[in-house]
Specification:
The chain is α/β, with parallel strands linked by helices. It folds into 2 domains: 10-138 and 271-316, Periplasmic binding protein-like II (D-Maltodextrin-Binding Protein, domain 2, 3-Layer(aba) Sandwich); 139-267 and 340-351, D-Maltodextrin-Binding Protein, domain 2 (3-Layer(aba) Sandwich). It is 47% helix and 15% strand. The chain contains 15 helices and 10 strands. It has helices at 3-30, 50-63, 74-84, 98-106, 116-121, 178-191, 193-206, 215-223, 234-241, 246-254, 283-294, 296-304, 319-324, 335-339, 341-351, and strands at residues 40-45, 66-71, 92-96, 110-111, 134-146, 170-171, 229-233, 255-258, 269-277, 309-310. Strands 1, 2, 3, 4, 5, 6, 7, 8, 9 and 10 form a 10-stranded mixed sheet that branches. The radius of gyration is 21 Å and the shape is globular. The protein starts with a helix and ends with a helix. Bound molecules: fe (ii) ion (FE2). Fe (ii) ion (FE2) is lined by residues 96, 233.
Length: 354
Amino acid sequence: MTRYTRTITAAAVALLAAACAGDTNEQEAATGGAQADAGVVNVYSHRHYDTDDQLFQRFTERTGIKVNVVTAGADELIARLESEGASTQADVLITVDAGRLHRAKERGLLQPIASETLEQNIPEHLRDRDNMWFGLTRRARIIAYAKDRVQPSQLSTYEALAQPEWKGRVTVRSSDNVYNQSLLASIIAHNGADAAREWAQGIANNLSRQPSGGDTDQIKAIAAGTGDVAIVNSYYLARLQASDDAENRRIGEMIAPFFPNQGDRGTHVNVSGAGVTAHAKNRDNAVRLIEFLSSPEAQELFAQGNQEYPVNPAVQPSPTLAAWGEFRADTLNLSTLGELNAEAVRIFDAAGWR
Ligand code: FE2
């Protein structure tokens, strides 16, 4: 969705909020609520799914709080928050990957939030240790494999893909991408820096091609015969498999998911998440929005919009993900991924995985 259409949507949400305000106020007056004049909440979001708009709309219906959304690239939003400083209009930052959320925290762009609701709805390892950000959807970094060339019995761990038998067969995007940096950060945390260096070097040696494109491009590459396995986020494969487009579905059918490291620490997972900005003018509304997004009602829609796993354990994943079966996920606290990001970047550079 372009930024232009997004602005229109935000305006539509605002109109709808105005239309619903009467009902909401009546309800709250009836229950003695003190939120009758609920106001607005301004969101900077890197996510761009139609379901997110539906969610904000539902939040407005429930609370009377208008949601204004600015969407842009994740790094752009962080840069913008930084340059706006105390004068920013943004109350909430929504972005992907703990590595990036941590970056926002490090730069002083977020503030801590004490919320029992968030503590109940979101498992501890999927939120920041200092309550600066909270995971809202969860994704696994899986091994996608070409069904006609790879048997699942040949697969086991991320580490195994660095072995010589996989030479010329591993397809993965550039190491300048935060998803790979967070995966490597998890390997540093579990196996130590030396083992992480060896792994990055091993994968760099086994690449089927010079990294290019995003995760979907890696899946399409192995479907076309360039490489046999791809390291990708789960939703990229699930989206192809659940696509309305026949060609996408055909590709999705050729490729199957494998959850690595089931015999030890579990598959690396990450989140998209949200935090309240350091200079939020509508702090209470910001907290209410994030609490709403973690609720079972919102989690169903929020996760399914992008074929992600809900963070709230009370909510089931989409039928496509459910068909993949359950898996053991790494429970490493995701704050660690951010803390080890710089070291991961250094290791990648030295390994020549560009
Ligand atoms: Fe992504």
